[in-house]
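[agent] plan:
  1. take the single chain provided in the ticket
  2. run structure prediction with default settings
  3. attach C-alpha cells to the ticket
  4. add a short note for the reviewer (M.T.)
[agent] executing step 1
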Amino acid sequence: MGNKDDSHPCKKLAKLTALIILFFTAYLLGYSSHNQTLTPNPQPTSVSNINDDHQDFSYIKCADPVATGTERQIILDKVFSGPSPWENFPPPHMAPHLRRDWTIWGGMGSNNQVFERLITQFKPKIIIEAGSFLGASATHMARIARKLDLDTLIICLDDFRSWPLHPPIKMINGDSILLYQFMVNVETANATENIIFLPFSTTNGFDGLCTWGIFADMVEIDAAHDFHSAWNDINNGFKVLRPGGVLFGHDIAIDGVKRAVELFAVLHGFQVKVDEEHWILV
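[agent] step 2 finished; step 3 output follows
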C-alpha cells in the first residue's frame, strides 16, 4: 500500500470543514437540550398529575394518643427539660428591649370571630397553632376558652425568627427578640399555664407532636404563605388532628395558601368554607 498524503490542500480543507460542522452540531444539540430543561411544564398541577411523593407524609408514624391532660408536661419535659420556660423570665440581657404594651399587634385577623365560633362549637382540649408570631391569636383563643370555662391548652409552633421581607424585628447579637416578646405577651395575658410553645420550624414541631402522641381538636395553619410551606403545614397538621376535629387557617386570599387548601380539600374530600380572612375544612 502507498503512503497517504495528508498535506494536500484539499484534504486540509475537508478536515477543517468537518470540524466546523461537528462543532456547530454539538452546539445546536446542547442549546436544544438546555432550552428543554428550562422550559416550564405548561400543564397546571391537578389531582391526576400530582406526584405521589408530594402527598406522602407518612415518613413519621404518630404514636398512640397520650392521656388527656398530660400534654403540657410532656412538652415541658421533651423541649425544656422539665421547668416552665417562664421561670426566671425574662433574661436580664433581653428585659430592657421588651414591651408590656403590645396592643398594636392585635391585627392581622387575630381577633376575628371565627375563633370564638369554632371554640364554642368544638370545645377543644388541645389547639395547635402553626405560626404564632407575637401571640395575638393564641392569647385571643386563650381568653375565649377562659370565658367559656374550658380547660384548653394552646400549643404554638414557631421558630420565632420572623422573615426577611417583614419589617425588621430587633436583633440582639444576631438573636431575634421575637420569642421573648411572644413570651412577654403570653405572660401579660395571664396565659402561661394555657399556652406552651415549640420554638422550632412548623415541620419539626408537628413531627415532635406526632412522635409524642399529642393530638388536637383544632389545628390552625398560619405560618409561611407560599404554596409548598402551606401544603406541608396542612398535611402535617392533619396528621395530628383528632377524629371529629377541625383544620382551619388564615390568609385564604393569598394565592399560595388558596391553592394548597383547595388541592388538599379535593384530595381528601373536604369542602372549603371561607370565614372573613380564614378558611375552614368541612
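[agent] step 4 note for reviewer: The first helix runs from residue 9 to 38.
[agent] ticket updated
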